[in-house]
Amino acid sequence: MPNANLVVLMGHLTRDPETRVTQKGMPVANFGLAINSKWTSREGEKKEETCFVDCSAFGRVAETVAEFAKKGDPLFVIGRLHQENWETQEGDRRSKITVTVDSFQLLSKKSDDAKPAPRRDNKQADGDAVPF
Question: Domain segments of the chain: what residues?
Fold first, then answer.
């Protein structure tokens, strides 16, 4: 049976990305995402829940997210789940699941401020069709 590990998230950064470099020179950026869910219960009561997810990006993705993303920014993330395991000083085993970010997209902060994307109709400025 095949396996799949794909995560797609859209939320807001809970903090500025924290960057470091591994011993082998690989850039790493760690950040958190807050994902809000809203719904109405059967009784008509409005409900809201926030899920907090820790994320890590590596290489060029880490450099880019650290340069352009700041606390509060809306972010669309595609990645995969990763389980971290460690042992405390008291000898207790701990683990947590994080998301390893493969790609991301910065989103506009307010939808009412967003301007429509320019129309792309494959025409050049002089009216000639693009040759492909």
Answer: 7-86+93-106
> 41: which DSSP letter?
-
- 10-residue mean pLDDT profile of the chain (132 residues): values are 94 96 96 95 93 97 95 96 94 95 89 47 46 48
Decide if 100 contacts 78 (C-beta within 8 A).
no
Amino acid 70 reads: K
Least Cα distance to 74 among 41, 114, 20, 39 occurs for 114
Q: Which residue has the tokens 């809000």?
A: 36
State the pTM of this model: 0.76
**Number of C-beta neighbours around residue 104 at 10 A:** 21
Query: Position 19: which residue type?
Result: T
One-letter-per-residue 3-state SS of 81-101 = EEEEEEECCCCCEEEEEEEEE
For the domain spanning 7-86+93-106, the CATH number is 2.40.50.140
Whole-angstrom distance, CA of residue 10 vs CA of residue 44 = 26
